[in-house]
Amino acid sequence: MFNTFTFSLYFLLSLLLTTTTFSLPTIGVTYSTTTTTTQSPTPPPQPPQDRITTAMQNLKLTSLRLEEPNPTIIRSLLYTNISLFLTIPNYMVTPIANNRSIARAWIYTHVLPFYPRAKITTISVGNAFLDVYPESINNLLPAITNVHVSLRDLGIRKISVSTSFSFVTTVSSPFPPSSATFQEPPGVNLIGPLLQFLSDTNSSFMINLYPYNLYRLRPEIPLGIALFQEHPFNFRDDFTTGVRYRNLFDIMVDSVVSAMAFAGYETIPVIVTETGWPSAGNELDANSGYAEIYLRGLVKHLKSGAGTPLLKDGVKAVYVYELFDKDGSGRNWGVLYPNGSTKYRIDFSEASRSCLMNWNNVALILALIVVEVCCMVIVH
Ligand SMILES: *[C@@H]1O[C@H](CO)[C@@H](O)[C@H](O)[C@H]1NC(C)=O
Ligand SMILES: *[C@@H]1O[C@H](CO)[C@@H](O)[C@H](O)[C@H]1NC(C)=O
Ligand SMILES: *[C@@H]1O[C@H](CO)[C@@H](O)[C@H](O)[C@H]1NC(C)=O
Ligand SMILES: *[C@@H]1O[C@H](CO)[C@@H](O)[C@H](O)[C@H]1NC(C)=O
């Protein structure tokens, strides 16, 4: 009897361990200097040395997305264990598409001197490129391919290459999420070949996803569902899948998942390259109270490991927009003030996530032991 008991306990414990070692979404943050992603080839101002590293350490964040990476910033992050997501500026996409040497030159300046001492994991070729250069859309995939091939030619296999889209221009209506599809300008065939590339190279589909923007475009959306507020009336049902959604973030993520599935690719991981809520500005709902509620709700949701109804493991990573408020920009999206002091009380740390998991494990293990002992008693 004892043998059966230990064996089945062992079996259940191993099952438990395998089911709880899935990884939670990585939470990162974006650092940017310019207020728009337009064609400004002027170098952005240099940040004070260590400003970013100090801020990341204070927030206990270990993933950083750089919107305008420059060698000085990347150098300041050597040996910090902060994983880096680099963005190639939109104005370089067409030159890179036309000439692979330009892709190679970019890598020689931004990657080779630092990698792997700087943990560069991902490169986005452009950011919301379609919104800024719709007439050059056919250059996007050739540019991505040139960056990918150049990295491989240089023997770098662990950096994945993709591009980020903005939700409102790329995904058709997200109500209900299961009917969402990708929308492309007439005569353009980008998404299908891009998804094939991402699938072939184990890369992720990347999307800038702002419940704030969708909420502002759609007056019928209640504020609470955009802010992760739990309330009996804060839900939207998807009658096709029979799923009840309680927050707009999940609705938007599942729309992306549905659109990918409709295109024939459902297993490509999703990275949310930007999300956030402004703490100031002319709009009614841009205030620090709502911004804090949104970010806290987002972090709690991601740490819970609940995923989304269609994506059990959830998205692979989420980058909050953004690290610092920009001085004098009016709409403030920063998690920190320009002087680096904290705006919100939010715990981003990995530590509290693994701690949460451990306590869950302990509780489950205790419950299993109780069940086992009861079974033994009944059998006897
Ligand atoms: C980076 O991570 C390694 C291994 O996890 C650790 O030994 C090292 O102390 C870390 N370095 C910093 C600067 O945190
Ligand atoms: C590609 O770029 C390199 C470096 O800028 C330049 O030397 C070369 O002439 C370019 N090739 C073409 C075909 O434009
Ligand atoms: C993608 O991942 C799979 C499984 O992890 C691996 O077998 C395959 O070689 C990878 N492909 C590339 C191109 O890295
Ligand atoms: C930083 O800026 C904020 C907002 O302007 C202000 O409230 C805070 O006192 C400043 N902190 C320091 C240390 O200057």
Automatic annotation (TrEMBL):
The chain crosses the membrane at residues 359-379. InterPro entries: GH, Glyco_hydro_17, Glyco_hydro_17_plant. Pfam families: Glyco_hydro_17. It catalyses: Hydrolysis of (1->3)-beta-D-glucosidic linkages in (1->3)-beta-D-glucans. Residues 1-23 form the signal peptide. PANTHER family: GLUCAN ENDO-1,3-BETA-GLUCOSIDASE BG1-RELATED-RELATED. Keywords: Glycosidase, Hydrolase, Membrane, Signal, Transmembrane, Transmembrane helix. Its EC number is 3.2.1.39. GO terms for molecular function: glucan endo-1,3-beta-D-glucosidase activity. It comes from the Eukaryota. Belongs to the glycosyl hydrolase 17 family. The keyword Hydrolase applies. This is glucan endo-1,3-beta-D-glucosidase. SUPFAM superfamilies: (Trans)glycosidases. It is an enzyme of class 3 (hydrolase). GO terms for biological process: carbohydrate metabolic process.
